[in-house]
Amino acid sequence: MKHLTHMEDLGVAGLQQVIRQALSWKQADPGKHLADALLGMLFFNPSLRTRASFEAVMARGGGSSLVLESGKGAWAMEHRDGIPMDGDRPEHVREAAPVLSRYVDLLAVRSFAALEDDAQDEADPMMRAFRAHATVPLISMESAREHLCQGLADVLTLAERFGGPDGDLKGQPVTLSWAPHRKPLPKAVPNSFLLSAAAAGCEVRLAHPPGFELPAAVMQQADDLAAQSGGSVYVSHDQSAAVAGSRAVYAKAWGPVLPCAGDAPAMMQAHPDWQVDSRLMAKAAGDACFMHCLPVRRDLEVAAELLDSPASAVVDQAENRFHVQRVLVDMALKSFK
Ligand code: CP
C-alpha cells in the first residue's frame, strides 16, 4: 500500500512517472478508470481548488467521493498521543483513521501548519498520524510541511510551457520569489515547489528577504533531489538578480522563520517592494510565465495587471491539479490491489 503525502514518497523517478502519465492522459483521456472507487476527503482547513479538483477526478473517472470537515459537522480531531483529551477535540486520529478506512478505498487529508514553530510543522504531526493509522492509501491535500499535489501540478505546467520530450526540464531556470502579505502564511507551497522543481532538474532560484528562510531539512532535501536529477538550487536576497533570465517566476507569500521574536504580521508588510509585477517580469526570459498557486491577493502579493496579462499561468496551474491528481489516485488505488 502506497501513501502519497510527501515528495519522499515519489522521488525523482516517481515525479517523472506522474508528469509523463498526466501529459499522456491530457492527450488520450483514460475514461472511467476509477470505476466504483470511493475517496474519503477530510478537511481541517478551507479549499476551493483542492476540493473541487479531487471531486472532479472521482466523478469523471467513474468513482465517487465523500467530504468531511473536522470541527464543522465532523468531530474536531486530536493527533497527539499520551495526553488526556480534556480539550475541545473529542475524536482521536487513532480511531478516526481506521474507521474511515473501513468505509472508503482511499483517504485524502488537508491539515495546515500550526505556524508556531517551523520544526514542529516540518515534522508534520497530523499527516504523519494519518499515515500511521490509515489502513487504505492516503493522499495529502496539503499538510504542514508540503503541498505535494500543488508541486506536481506546477511542474506539469512548467513541462507544458517549455519542457522538452517527456516534459524534460533539466537546467531550466525558474525563480520562486517571496511576496508580501498582511499575515504570515504556511510554507507548504514554497517547500513543495522547491522540492518538485529540484526533482524535475530545474535550476531553482529561491529569492526572499533575510529572515524568511525555508526549513533547513527541506533545503537539504531539495539539494539531494537536485543532485539526483541534474538540477541545482540557490538562494538570493536579491529578487531582480534571481529573476534575470528565468523561464518562470513563481510568487508566494510565506511567514518568517518560526518561532519569531518580532511582530510577524509587521515583518510580512515590511517589504512592499517585493510585490511581483510586470516590471520585475521584464527581467525574466522573453517568454517567461508567471505562476501562483492561488488564492492570491491582488495588488498585495502580485500586481493585478500581471495576473491579467498573457504571461499568467495561474489558471493552467489550477487545471493541472486535476490532471496530476487523477494519476495519483490511480497509482494509490493500484498499490492497494
Ligand atoms: N492551491 C490550492 O490548494 O487551492 P485551495 O486552497 O483553494 O484548495
TrEMBL record:
Domain Aspartate/ornithine carbamoyltransferase Asp/Orn-binding: 189-329
SUPFAM superfamilies hit by this protein: Aspartate/ornithine carbamoyltransferase
Residue ranges occupied by any Aspartate/ornithine carbamoyltransferase carbamoyl-P binding domain in the UniProt entry: 2-160
EC number(s) per entry: 2.1.3.9
Entry GO MF terms: N-acetylornithine carbamoyltransferase activity
Keyword Transferase: yes
Key words of the record: Transferase
Transmembrane portions of the chain: none
Pfam families named among the record's database cross-references: OTCace (PF00185), OTCace_N (PF02729)
Family as reported in the entry's similarity comment: Belongs to the aspartate/ornithine carbamoyltransferase superfamily.
Name of this chain's protein: N-acetylornithine carbamoyltransferase
Organism from which the protein derives: Natronospira proteinivora
